Amino acid sequence: MTAPTTPITTYASTPRRRVPPPSSPRGRAGVPRWVWGLAAAAGCLVPLLVLLPGPEGGLPAAGRTTLVVFTAAVLAWMFGRLDDTFVGLSAVLALVLTGVLDADTMFGSLGGETIWLLIAAFVLAAGLSETGLPARIAVLLISHARTVRQLAHLITVALLLTALAVPATSGRAALVLPVFLALAKVLRARPAVVRALAVLFPTVILLSAVATLIGAGAHLITSQILAGSTGSGIGYGQWLLLGAPFAVLSSHLAGELVLLLMTSRADRAAPLAIDADRLGALSQTRVTGALSVPQRKALATLCAVVLLWCTETAHGLSPALVALLGAIAVTAPRLGTVGMGAALASIPWSLLLFMASTAALGGALASSGAADWLTGALFGSADGSPTTFLVGVVLASTAAHLVLQSRSARSSVLVPLLIPLAVSFGMNPAAVAFASTVASGFCHTLPSSAKPVAMFGAVTDVPTYRRADLLRLSAFLGPLMAVLVLAFALFVWPSLGLPLY
């Protein structure tokens, strides 16, 4: 009997596609709204262009242009209705046309090693998800729960495992959404528990992403900007060593917090009995019998790829090349588990283009001298305690999702500014950038704050969270994450090879 397979997951992209409301496209006095938007943008950007100093004030001409273009992009991301990828690519094109970046740099960012790493990782993930193995492992783990607390922590373990194989938080959310819907049907008599799970799934998906370099595009942007500015980025093995302990601890703490805030003592005390076969049937996942041949092939390929990623220093193969080898293996005729065409169709190309454009913008901030001038103008000399500076970085990064909803955009804004500041404080730029990137992974306040949160809030026919649930969780989880990042930055990551100084 042939094992049923799950359809290939089509990954949603991180950049938001804004759809204008069905109201009139004209504003006051019958003037089209885009005219008002252009006027408002000009009202902000023209004074900025006039007020910014030139080379005599320490700001190179290229840096001046970069700051204006970058400000325009950030304003469009924050307040505009244009697609985020369109904004990012337009900003990079503007820098090329004004001579700040050359065309080779722009096209190099679109076809660089980072993009190839993600392309190959998405193909590998498509081959894995086609076999139904991730859902099978999740269902088998979850079915062992006998209490709500056990269920929450087993779900957390399952989601942590997906971070090793599936790139991007939106991809992981799409992969496990059927499992949540099946659980919701099994637990339909306990709506409070289902609502808690609707918050738990996206919360853990977002927090556990820090476990791996491919967990979010922002991680690759941080590593790329560090490599361009300091000559050395953070590889897959080092990121796994630093990020996995934080991902495990923060995810399980968040799970406990969700239980305490959204379930009663009676909910947590009542026993559970989840039938694996029923849960598998509802999620269209086979959970009995030996692993199928495609599942064994996909698992072996994944283990080989992860092992090669973690031992890069021993064999010298780049992570992108290793991922490409895995992608070829998983799509090979007769040997693979998915066709190349179907795997390529599952790749979120908009996400990759957005990530490439934001990385190019961040690189332009650093290479044009704009980042150095801006940090000096805003913060002056490095007066004060380095620890106080680190606290400010973590707090600002934790709250940044309220201003910029894209994780990649947050890293492209913050990391180029933090690198010269870290140097001026006598701190390790990689440690400060890593702490900022980890802290900016908190984005749970609103349904629009992150794609996974929105996906689980948009489900129908089953109970889901309310907006007030997210606000209450964020009021406790935000400070907890900030404290946890500071504790790791000061005491844990230095012992794992990432010193602060």
Describe this entry's structure for a reader.
The chain has about 500 residues and is mostly helical. It has one domain. About 65% of the residues lie in helices and about 0% in strands. The protein has 24 helices and no strands. It has helices at about 35-50, 60-80, 85-95, 105-110, 115-130, 135-140, 150-160, 170-185, 190-210, 215-230, 235-260, 265-270, 275-280, 295-310, 310-315, 320-330, 340-345, 350-365, 370-380, 385-400, 405-425, 430-440, 450-455, 465-490. Helix 10 (about 215-230) runs parallel beside helix 18 (about 350-365), helix 11 (about 235-260) packs across helix 24 and helix 14 (about 295-310) packs antiparallel against helix 16 (about 320-330). The radius of gyration is 23 Å and the shape is globular.
Q: Round the mean pLDDT to the nearest integer and report it.
A: 85
Number of domains: 1
SS field, number of helical segments: 24
The stretches of 5 or more residues where confidence is low (pLDDT under 50) are 1-7, 10-14
Please identify the structural class as seen in this structure. mainly alpha
Annotation, overall tally of beta strands: 0
Supply Rg: 23 Å
Largest sheet: none
Distance between the termini: 60 Å
> Shape from CA axes?
globular
- Beta-strand share of residues: under 5%
The H-and-E topology, N to C, reads as HHHHHHHHHHHHHHHHHHHHHHHH
**Helical fraction:** 55-70%
